[in-house]
Amino acid sequence: MSFRRLSRPDDRHWNTGDWVKWLQDRDVAPSVSADDIGTCSLCRTPTRIGTQGTPYRRCYDCEHTHSSVLDGLVPICYSLRDGLEGLLRTVKDDPGHEWLRLPLGSLLWDFLQRHRSCMEDYYGGKFEMQISMPSHSSTRNGIGHLDQMIRPIKGFSTQWTTGALVKNSPSKAESRRSKIVPELFTATAAVRGKRILLFDDTYTTGGSIASAAYALKQRGAATVVGLTLGRQLRADWRDSREFAATLPGRGLNVRDCAVHGRRPESAFDLFFKQSG
């Protein structure tokens, strides 16, 4: 399976804002907006039309499974095969393209600076822990690809709690689909009573992040809200075909947020630790 190929720019003096601008110029990540009509109130996928001629409030999986463990979900962008999905697959599986962690990590950092407070307002209080979805110890020498995305940004990794969530099996997401697998993750007692922001790179069927949220809730976490870079869509899926057709040209607008729409620009910046 081949994806769009991107060349690394001359980024020796770049900061997070430069990398986000680079993503915007590549037109790979259309923002998720609070104003999107006819999408699931939890995962933001297009929903089916009910008997009254209006879209369902939630998709089937969220209504019957994922809402039992996820108190909320905020995808930053829609992920299509020739866009963000391709970047995420390439950075994980294509040696020589590890540099793509820089724009992806920048987008995550930028989004949290702008929208963490509105997510906390929307979902009922401040997050006391930020946890990234862990990889199994047998995968990539035990180093999670999300941690590798976060580490290059100065001070960012210290905001994330490590070791509180462990993956017990290297099983692939495709084998789980939308199911919650109770034994897939184990959480420690450190999460008890905590309001947790749980980060994953993309949400496809939701099985992975829902299984992680299940483990956190079983250990007594008070709240689990998911945050993902992408909400994956397939242009040829029946329920998303029409909606996906509206996304080309939307672009990435870092002022947009799935829970509140637009906010004024903020003045902030952060430099990467980079050699050369």
Written overview of the protein:
With 276 residues, the protein is of the alpha/beta class. It is 25% helix and 13% strand. The protein is built from 7 helices and 6 strands. The strands form 2 sheets. It has a 4-stranded parallel beta sheet. A two-stranded antiparallel ribbon has the order 3-4. Helix 6 links the parallel strand 5 (195-203) and strand 6 (223-232). The longest helix has 22 residues, at 101-122. Residues 262-276 have low confidence and may be disordered.
Task: Note the main attributes of this structure.
single chain; 276 residues; alpha/beta; four-stranded parallel β-sheet; two-stranded antiparallel sheet
How would you summarize the topology of this molecule?
Elements: H1 16-26, H2 60-64, E1 72-79, H3 84-93, H4 101-122, E2 129-132, H5 145-150, E3 165-167, E4 185-187, E5 195-203, H6 207-218, E6 223-232, H7 241-244
Parallel strand pairs: 1-6, 2-5, 5-6
Antiparallel strand pairs: 3-4
Helix pairs in contact: 1-4
Count of helical regions:
7
Q: Could you tell me the number of beta strands?
A: 6
H/E order of the elements?
A: HHEHHEHEEEHEH
Q: Indicate the mean pLDDT.
A: 88
**What distance separates the N and C termini?**
33 Å
> What Rg, in angstroms, do the CA atoms define?
18 Å
**Poorly predicted sequence stretches spanning 5 or more consecutive residues:** 262-276
Strand order of the largest sheet: 1-6-5-2
> Helical percent range?
25-40%
Structure class = alpha/beta
User: Largest sheet, described in full?
Assistant: 4 strands, parallel
Given the C-alpha coordinates, what overall shape results? globular
Content of β-strand: 5-15%
